[in-house]
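Journal club prep — side note

Before the paper discussion, L.F. wants everyone to see what a predicted structure for a comparable chain looks like in token form. Sequence:
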Amino acid sequence: MVQVDLITGFLGAGKTTFLRRYAAWWAGQGVKVCVLENDFGAVNVDAMLLQDLEAQGVELETIKEEIRAAKGGMYDPTLTKLPFLVLRSRDMEPIGVCCLRDIDRLNGNAEVLLGIGEKDMRLAGFGVDLLIVLLDLAYYDLGLQKTYMKILESQPYGLQNAVKFGYKAEGHLRNQAFIEGKYVNVFFMGMLKSDYEKLSIVPRWKKTQERAK
């Protein structure tokens, strides 16, 4: 007999944290565990955060095709998406993902996606770290001139942080997404390379990182 457990819940309810511990516990008991993860997001945050479970005997159907597609490296001219699993440096704990999506070499732009799995990690300043590292790649390694974000109206914290970092509102689409039983607006936030190079936080952050080495 195969035991099937269905884990569901609202955004931020703690599903990923619970699943990591639950699956690892069963694997530690010698039970073969298979996680079937269903995510409709542009980047499958949960699947990437759960990849380390495979080392504990947990089989995980994830977005491996996207990761394999990036094997040509970021300089592959056909590359349109560049996802990264983010590890906390002090203990190499997976804490989130970030991604450059819809990379348009001809027009010099790409969409930025960030995902921090745990709420306390979001409040610890990791979002700024991710943005600076990712935007350096976008502007200096890929030679893009603009990055942009699409932020749901139902994510005021994300919208506030984007504006605080330096992204500028460029418009919104009304009732563009159906989330948790209702339609919400989607805001478009943009940042030019010239805007990024004027941000005072970037050189300060880089100096802090250099001192920490």
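L.F.'s comment for the group: The two ends are 53 Å apart (CA to CA). Keep this in mind when we get to the figures.
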